């Protein structure tokens, strides 16, 4: 059984079990998907996943067997899950930044629902994230979780990723973080572009100046950017402060600014907003 077929099967089983757990009893599957799943012996002539630069460019390889083309041009939920699994596998094996590949403990790919309407993008994993392999699990992450929960959502309802999938190394330092370099961002950003292309969120929240720079290029400072809608390839993008900044600036006014950004996001998504929510972090 080829690796890509095994991967498709694993993703399919995982997806179908998830649907069953949520009470779904019937599934519509496109005929071409069924044909692809029924072709385990198909010839595997495609290049190894690591050598592909982008899902869409790889889709032009007419030699590839039906299973692989189904993965690269996802039409159904099953194909989307398989394409996401394939992307994750590629990212986890990435060594494009040798200095980061040799210093990292994990590749921190992302977490949450691949069907999320709301996606959060941060800067890069810190020490806790590197240790646990999950974005935003340290102190700033716990604050992000609280912000998400204040909207009525959970971490599992949204998708959380970073511009950089590896922790920026800090040679000679035992603690602390550093900002990703422009080179590192340019090298890693294609993974995030592919994640966004597959998830197709309705709204992206960019956490801090580096996230905005990674997604939109260099603009003005985050203080001027935050609270104003931008667009990432047609998707509304709300820049706001990074939760680490909030931890350093615990004023009511700063908390309210971030919360106003989240209220705008909730409105854009058509989420219900209670009076209590509207008044969070207002004086008196
Ligand atoms: N800061 C980030 O930008 N991302 C993380 O995953 C953790 C902290």
Walk me through what this model shows.
47% of the residues lie in helices and 9% in strands. With 284 residues, it is of the alpha/beta class. The protein has 2 domains: 67 residues, no CATH class; 179 residues, Uracil-DNA Glycosylase, subunit E (3-Layer(aba) Sandwich), CATH 3.40.470.10. Strand 5 and strand 6 form a beta hairpin. The longest helix is centred in the N-terminal third of the chain and has 19 residues. The radius of gyration is 20 Å and the shape is globular. The structure holds uracil. Uracil binds next to helix 8.
Q: Would you kindly provide a brief summary of this structure?
A:
Residues 41-70 have low confidence and may be disordered. The protein has 284 residues and is α/β, with parallel strands linked by helices.
CATH classification, class level of the largest domain: Alpha Beta
General shape? globular
Order of helices and strands: HHHHHHEEHHEHEHHEEHHH
> Which structural class do you get from the secondary structure elements?
alpha/beta
Q: Detail the poorly predicted runs.
A: 41-70
How far is the N terminus from the C terminus? 65 Å
**What do we call the CATH topology of the largest domain?**
Uracil-DNA Glycosylase, subunit E
Ions, cofactors and other ligands present here are: uracil
Average of per-residue pLDDT values:
84
Strand content: 5-15%
Radius of gyration: 20 Å
CATH architecture of the largest domain: 3-Layer(aba) Sandwich
């Amino acid at each position: 059984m080829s690796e890509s077929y095994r991967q498709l099967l694993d993703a399919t089983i995982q997806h179908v079990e998830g649907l069953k757990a949520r009470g779904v009893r019937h599934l519509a599957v496109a005929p071409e998907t069924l044909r692809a799943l029924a072709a385990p012996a198909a010839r595997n002539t495609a290049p190894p996943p690591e050598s592909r630069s982008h899902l869409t460019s790889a889709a032009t390889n007419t030699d590839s067997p039906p299973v692989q083309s189904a993965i690269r041009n996802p039409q159904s939920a099953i194909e989307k899950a398989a394409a996401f699994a394939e992307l994750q596998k590629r990212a986890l094996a990435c060594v494009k930044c040798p200095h980061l590949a040799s210093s990292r403990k994990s590749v921190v790919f992302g977490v949450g629902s691949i069907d999320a309407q709301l996606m959060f993008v941060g800067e890069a994993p810190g020490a806790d994230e590197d240790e646990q392999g999950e974005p935003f699990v340290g102190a700033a992450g716990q604050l992000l979780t609280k912000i998400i929960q204040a909207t009525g959502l959970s971490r599992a309802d949204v998708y959380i990723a970073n511009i950089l999938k590896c922790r920026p190394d800090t040679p000679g330092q035992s603690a602390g973080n550093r900002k990703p370099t422009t080179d590192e961002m340019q090298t890693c950003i294609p993974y995030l572009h592919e994640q966004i292309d597959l998830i197709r969120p309705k709204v992206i929240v960019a956490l801090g100046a580096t996230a905005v720079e990674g997604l939109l290029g260099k603009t003005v400072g985050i203080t001027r950017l935050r609270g104003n809608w931008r667009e990432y390839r047609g998707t509304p993008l709300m820049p706001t402060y990074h939760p680490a900044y909030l931890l350093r600036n615990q004023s009511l006014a700063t908390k309210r600014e971030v919360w106003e950004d989240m209220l705008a996001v909730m409105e854009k998504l058509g989420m219900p907003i209670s009076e209590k929510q509207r008044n969070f972090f207002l004086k008196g």
